[in-house]
Every structure is written in C-alpha cells, then in structure tokens.
TrEMBL record:
Transmembrane segments: 49-79, 91-116, 122-141, 185-205, 217-239
Domain of life: Bacteria
Keyword entries, A-Z: Cell membrane, Membrane, Transmembrane, Transmembrane helix, Transport
UniProt similarity note: Belongs to the binding-protein-dependent transport system permease family.
Span of domain ABC transmembrane type-1: 56-236
Membrane topology note: Multi-pass membrane protein
Coiled-coil residue windows: none
Protein name: ABC transporter permease
Gene Ontology terms: cellular component: plasma membrane
Main location: membrane
InterPro entries: MetI-like (IPR000515), MetI-like_sf (IPR035906)
C-alpha cells in the first residue's frame, strides 16, 4: 500500500501503456513483430525453467564480475586522479574519450580478441559501467569543504587524515549515485555482449528466438533483464540508505 501511494502516477501510467500495447498488438495481429504483453507473460512462464536455471546465471555472472572490476578500477582511478594532478591530466581525457566510441562497435572486437568466452562480455560491461562510477566518485572527492580541510590542517591533521575524514564521507553519496547508474548499465552491457556472441545468457537466448521469428520469445528474456536491472538498482539503493544514515538524519 505504501508503494502504491508513493508511485500512484507511475503505476497508473504503466498500466495505461501496457493496456494500449495489448490492444495495439491484438489489432495488428503480427505476433512475430509485436507480441502482446499477455503473450510475452505466457512465453515467460513456459520458458521459466530454461531462462532462470540456465541463462540467467550466465548473465548474472557477467554483471557481477563486470561491476566488481568497474568499482575497483573506477574508485582506484578516481582516488589517484584526486591525489595527483599528473594522473588527472593523463587519464581524465582518456576516460571521456572511452565513452565517445560506440560500445556496439567495440563489442565485436572484444569477441575477436577473447572469442565467445565470458571475458568478451565482461569487457563490454566494464566499458559501460566504469565511467559513471569513476566520474561521480572523482567529483565527490573534489567537493569536500576547503574550509574544513584548512581547519584540520591547522589542527595538525595529515593528508591521509583529511582524506578519510573529509573526502571519503563527501564522496560516498556521489559514489552511490554513479553505482546506481552503473548497475542499470551493466544489464545493458551484458545483454549487448551476449547478443553479439555467446553460448548462454538472456541476451543470447533473445537473439536465438529472433532467428526463429518468435516475437514473444525475444521479449521474454528482455522482461527478465529489466526485472534484474530494477532489483539491482533497489539493492544499491538499500545499501546506500543503510550506509548513509548520517546524511538522512541531516
């Protein structure tokens, strides 16, 4: 009931869109192009064992490995750029440039290098997810109060003390903002990698159904991917709320 009260407009709009989708799909009557939501749900129920037991774990493994690498790489690079102007000038333009090249264009190259192994898909996921984590964390580290830093210096604090007392608490909200974006992008990255070349995974299964002109089969794993993205976002949001209770009290 609480969720319904908070998101009444969103849920109502979603129901309206699904209703029009259902009506339009029935009028067109071309299920291989535009299957109805009910047909997709039926297909999802029919394929639940195959999708959840076989293909979902493969996609989740790519997502979690990619996110872990992105967090380590992104936070480490953000801290290094904050501590060193030389590293900042060397890497910041490269980080921006990395987002200028379309990921879909690089994915086939990764597959050429690593084949259909998991690492080609992980690289696609890392390429998409490390950017928001790095930039948001870096901006958070830079946004610490200069007055507070100067006060701590006059009290004899070292740079390490200032980093943990001022920079880290200030950067945490920014880090979680970047992570919330990254977890949703990670689902997209894993799906793109699997779509272009894989032997298992939700993206691979969707592509296989496309070759069979099974519209509902194409949409079924996409719906499951959307649910995974939402659940990951809510998980990060929950961790953020638990970790930043001090900000809520303020």
């Amino acid at each position: 009931m609480k969720i319904w009260r908070e998101y009444t407009l969103t849920i109502s709009l979603l129901f309206i869109l699904v209703f029009f989708w259902e009506v339009t799909a029935r009028i067109i009557n071309m299920a291989f192009i535009l299957p109805s939501p009910t047909a997709i749900l039926v297909k999802l129920w029919e394929l639940k064992v195959v999708l959840i037991a076989e293909h979902l774990p493969a996609t989740l493994l790519i997502i979690f490995i990619g996110l872990a690498i992105s967090i380590l790489l992104g936070v480490g690079l953000a801290v290094s750029m904050n501590q060193s102007k030389i590293i900042e000038k060397a890497f910041y333009p490269l980080i921006i440039f990395s987002q200028m090249v379309p990921t879909v264009a690089l994915a086939p190259i990764f597959i050429l290098w690593f084949g259909y192994s998991i690492w080609s898909k992980v690289l696609v996921t890392v390429l998409i997810t490390f950017f928001p984590i790095t930039i948001n964390t870096y901006d958070g580290l830079r946004s610490g109060s200069k007055e507070l830093k100067e006060l701590l210096l006059t009290m004899g604090a070292r740079k390490k003390d200032i980093f943990f007392i001022v920079n880290v608490p200030t950067a945490l909200p920014h880090f979680f903002s970047g992570l919330k974006v990254a977890v949703t992008f990670s689902v997209i990255g894993a799906a793109i990698g699997e779509w272009l070349g894989a032997q298992a995974g939700l993206g691979y299964f969707s592509r296989r159904m496309m070759t069979q002109f099974d519209g509902a089969g194409v949409f079924a794993p996409i719906i499951l991917l959307s649910v995974v993205g939402i659940l990951l976002f809510l998980l990060v949001k929950w961790i953020e709320n638990k970790s930043l209770k001090w900000r809520q009290s303020q």
